[in-house]
Automatic annotation (TrEMBL):
SUPFAM superfamilies: Phospholipase A2, PLA2. One of its GO terms (biological process) is arachidonate secretion. It comes from Acrobeloides nanus. The keyword Magnesium does not apply. The keyword Cytoplasm does not apply. Keywords: Signal. This is Uncharacterized protein.
Length: 97
């Protein structure tokens, strides 16, 4: 119970924009919206990007991507890739302007 909650809380407070780091859609540098989705985690990032483009508040998009990542992990039986978690952490480890 602790591990999924911990992973969800890391993602909950995060935004995918610390550079490219997973699949075709995870990270600020992943800009080709027509690139094929690589896996369930990449699909979560794709949906996060579309959420942000729609004008939805960033905090709500972050909640949605956190839930989608947790679901992708449960569905695939794989942990959320460390590249995604470290990318989120890197983004929130620096000061925002």
């Amino acid at each position: 119970m602790f591990k999924p909650f911990f992973i969800f809380s890391l993602i909950f407070i995060s935004v995918v924009n610390a550079g490219w780091y997973w699949g075709n859609h995870c990270g600020r540098e992943a800009r080709n919206r027509n690139a094929p989705i690589q896996d369930a985690f990449d699909a979560a990032c794709y949906q996060h990007d579309r959420c942000q483009e729609s004008g939805t508040p960033d905090w709500l998009c972050s909640v949605q991507v956190g839930m989608a990542m947790t679901q992708a992990s449960a569905m695939t039986g794989q942990p959320i890739p460390s590249q995604i978690l470290s990318g989120f952490a890197a983004e929130h480890g620096r000061k925002r302007k």
